[in-house]
Amino acid sequence: MKINSSKYPTIDVGTCSKIKSGEIQVLPAEIGSIRGSDVELKKGKSYQFESIVFCTGFKTSTSLWLKADDYLLKEDGIPRPSSPNHSKGQKVWSQNLFNHLSSGYLLH
After folding, report:
1. Which UniProt keywords apply (predicted)?
2. Entry pTM
3. pLDDT single digits (tens) 53-103
4. By CB distance 3.0 to 4.6 Å, which of 10, 25, 61, 62 could disulfide with 106?
5. Distance CA 61, CA 2 (A)
6. pLDDT digits (tens, 9 = 90+) for 49-65
């Protein structure tokens, strides 16, 4: 599917919009230990979670073919916040491009 449409197949139940809005925070970090709802990261920081989603280490290839994407994606491939909280000067064009590219993606 990616080769034909440049989109990744996903099943989204509203998660993408919650990640984009900041309601769900993605923590790209290695887990040191889990005890009940307490999660300690390898770097020592601890969190309490209602739910834990384990990811497979998926890496997006967007930065290989989308040039000048630094205002759309962070270095780790997670989308930057949507307008108006991203870089000034990229408004309508970048928001439309981002909406097109991110529709159907589960990033992050």
Report:
1. FAD, Flavoprotein, Monooxygenase, NADP, Oxidoreductase, Pyruvate
2. 0.40
3. 776 666 666 667 766 656 667 777 667 766 555 554 445 556 666 676 666
4. 10
5. 10
6. 888 777 666 666 666 77
